[in-house]
Specification:
- The chain has helices at residues 12-24, 42-53, 72-83, 98-107, 113-126, 138-141, and strands at residues 2-9, 31-36, 61-66, 91-94.
- The chain is of the alpha/beta class.
- It has one domain (2-141): Phosphotransferase system, mannose-type IIA component (Rossmann fold, 3-Layer(aba) Sandwich).
- A four-stranded parallel beta sheet has the order 2-1-3-4, sandwiched between helices.
């Protein structure tokens, strides 16, 4: 089984998981979320992350999405995965957004490796655009 783990500062990851549940239904059980709380040290955060992993089998696949590459939450998570010798088999991506998380949640059991990374990153970047209001032609109103 493959798990999607959302990692963030604050409650962003928990909110994102909640929003994902509206789209993926029962598959939400394979999505975990953890955020570094305001004022929390990384040691405590790391302990909470280890607890989050405790019921995931060592041979289960992991896809980790973090809010910021190089931020304390994601570096703590990758350090722990490295200590547990799971990092080399884990896909880790930063710059998490909703389209990226939704795509990862949907594709995590049907794609792997570079194909999964390409699909998830493509969706993450193509979904970011400015909303533009398009005026209807007056001719179209007369139909």
């Amino acid at each position: 089984m493959n798990y999607l783990i959302l990692v963030s500062h604050g409650q962003f990851s928990e909110g994102l998981r909640d929003a994902l549940s509206m789209f993926i239904g029962d598959d939400i059980e394979q999505v975990r979320a953890i955020g570094l709380k305001s004022g929390e040290d990384t040691t405590n955060f790391g302990s909470r992350f280890k607890s989050l992993l405790s019921d995931i089998a060592p041979d289960d696949g992991l896809i980790v999405l973090g809010d910021i590459i190089g931020g304390s939450p994601l570096t703590t998570v990758t350090d722990i995965l490295n200590q547990q010798q799971r990092l080399s088999e884990t896909i880790v991506l930063g710059g998490m957004n909703f389209p990226m998380a939704l795509n990862a949640a949907i594709l995590k059991n049907t794609m792997s490796g570079d194909d999964l990374v390409s699909a998830v990153l493509h969706e993450a970047t193509t979904a970011v655009k400015q909303f533009e209001l398009i005026e209807a032609d007056e001719d179209e109103d007369e139909i």
